[in-house]
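Hi R.,

Here's the chain you asked about this morning:
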Amino acid sequence: MSELMAGMMIADLPGHTILARCDDVYDGETAVFTFKHDDQVSSYACKMYGYKAIGYMTEGSFIDKRRAHAARRTLRALILGRQVALYVVEIGPDTCPVVIVRCGGVNVNQVMINGGYGQ
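And the predicted structure, written out as tokens:
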């Protein structure tokens, strides 16, 4: 597992694996992770790599909104409050890290895709 080196910036994160704790889940594809870096605690909102979940705040049918809420509930059940390993794939255009999340040896991104929560 890669370690974060002193002085690393967010742009340096792709290609590194970071041990973190999930502190919040916004929707079926975005969560807040906290980790220690340079003797400071850092929190980042991260997007899940490989799928796009239906947004529950966007216009859509009742069924879409139910699916969006189900995606959020599922992601929360999988990672909220747990220690996870984040593999940073890239930094998105909004400076949000795009990550693959592993929790207890399980690829959470793949679980969400296989469950039909994203495309």
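The chain has a mean pLDDT of 86.

Let me know if you need anything else.
M.
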